[in-house]
Amino acid sequence: MADTVKLEIGGKASEYPVLSGTVGPDVIDIRKLYGATGAFTYDPGFTSTASCQSALTYIDGDQGILLHRGYPIDQLAEQSSFMEVSYLLLNGELPGKKELEDFTYTISRHTMLHEQLATFYRGFRRDAHPMAIMCGVVGALSAFYHDSTDINDPKQRMIASHRLIAKMPTIAAMAYKYSVGQPFLYPKNDLSYTANFLRMTFGVPAEEYEPDPVIVSAMDKIFILHADHEQNASTSTVRLAGSSGANPFACIAAGIACLWGPAHGGANEAALNMLREIGTPDRIPEYIARAKNKDDPFRLMGFGHRVYKNFDPRAKVLGKAATEVLDKLGINDPVLDTARELEQIALKDQYFIDKKLYPNVDFYSGVILSAIGFPTTMFTVLFALARTVGWVAQWNEMISDPEQKIGRPRQLYNGPAQRDYVPVGQR
Ligand code: CMC
């Protein structure tokens, strides 16, 4: 693309710089557009709009590539750990041995919650959706950790980030324990981040919990695959909330609320519910027909993506992991057969080919999470737990960006023009 782009509106010409990133499409810098022309751009859903500069994550949707700080997601999922990926996202480079030990130790020292927070849970109904509990409890952290909320101090920002990463497993496990009526378990810091979470979720005070290495490794992989994903809806929500200078814990609660929707993080719960409803492979054609019917709001959950128009690389890793985990655990779940068959049928169907709809990260994650023993309502909670790292890394990047401003989109107004008020008796 040229270095500048010329635009002519009403006979008046203006020129806009074109900016290039390391890789990926160029962007047209239209910050001066309104001043120069009096016009706004119109882009509902931000399909053609870059809202910020970021050095964290790169996605090439046509090639099915996802990089964190330049490292391909499949390499990180196969060879790294969630703690290492968290360090990478927060700090920009992979840690050395000592740096990783120090980081892991720091996170482990922040895993406990203020004891008063436990009473919050008791205010919820036992059948409350755990995502509702997550929104409430994470938002409430802002009332407890006043010493890490000066967002202009990089040190305080890092403490708030460490606290959020460290406390999220404790909060998530407590949401689960509350729903099943079991006592909360305190964290055990000699366990790894992921093993500690599994123990707090599935352990009971009455006996020792031995984390199964197969499950720990699968869970860690799932966390890595969900750690960050560029400027998606919940990350943009965190950035928008944070752009006003809001408290970091409140910003992450806003991200959790956005993630909950079935078009975003809630799709993993919806995908497994759908696979269970389909039940057996012979019913797949019925659901494919429904997904293609314009008059039916039904969509194949776990299929399609705003950015990936080729395979979602995370789904590739998870599809393989689902078979491995179920094999290793000796579980024969017909849902996995239904998922595999559905994938094959959809990938050969002209509707899905034309619209470039492929399985996304949520298609196989539910099969694994269900094999591990999580109820479907916990699936999005696990997504939120892992994505917290991405959210805080993006939030930190935004606050330290000298070009950062409060997010304030404009609109195309199509309501009534100015008119005079008429008293009620004369209407
Ligand atoms: N099943 C059937 N048709 C679909 C599907 C689907 N899953 N996804 C998109 N389409 C059709 C849609 O009807 C539309 O058709 P037309 O052009 O004829 O109107 C076309 O494909 C484009 O869809 P869109 O809704 O305009 O695309 P989008 O980029 O706005 O939406 C999406 C992306 C992920 C919201 C959508 O594909 C979807 O709803 N998928 C199911 C929910 C899901 O799995 N979400 C998880 C996304 S990955 C994890 C995450 O980000 O949280």
What can you tell me about this protein's structure?
By secondary structure, the protein is mostly helical. It has helices at residues 33-37, 73-79, 82-91, 97-108, 118-121, 130-140, 154-180, 193-202, 213-225, 233-242, 248-259, 267-278, 284-292, 313-329, 334-348, 350-354, 361-372, 379-399; strands at residues 4-9, 12-19, 27-28, 57-60, 65-68, 71-72. The chain has a three-stranded antiparallel β-sheet with strand order 1-2-3. The chain has a three-stranded antiparallel β-sheet with strand order 4-5-6. α9 (213-225) packs antiparallel against α17. It is globular, with a radius of gyration of 23 Å. The model has no long low-confidence stretch (mean pLDDT 94).
Short description:
This protein has helices spanning 33-37, 73-79, 82-91, 97-108, 118-121, 130-140, 154-180, 193-202, 213-225, 233-242, 248-259, 267-278, 284-292, 313-329, 334-348, 350-354, 361-372, 379-399; strands at 4-9, 12-19, 27-28, 57-60, 65-68, 71-72.
**Could you please say which CATH topology of the largest domain applies here?**
Citrate Synthase, domain 1
Ligands present? carboxymethyl coenzyme *A
How many strands, which pairing sense, and closed or not: the largest β-sheet? 3 strands, antiparallel
Order of strands, main sheet, comes to 1-2-3
- The top level CATH class name of the largest domain: Mainly Alpha
Order of helices and strands: EEEHEEEHHHHHHHHHHHHHHHHH
Average pLDDT across residues?
A: 94
- Specify the CATH homologous superfamily of the largest domain: Citrate Synthase, domain 1
Helical/strand content category: mainly alpha
Number of strands: 6
Shape: globular
Give start-end ranges of low-pLDDT stretches: none
Distance between the termini: 57 Å
Into how many domains do the coordinates divide? 2
Helical region count? 18
Query: Rg, please?
Result: 23 Å
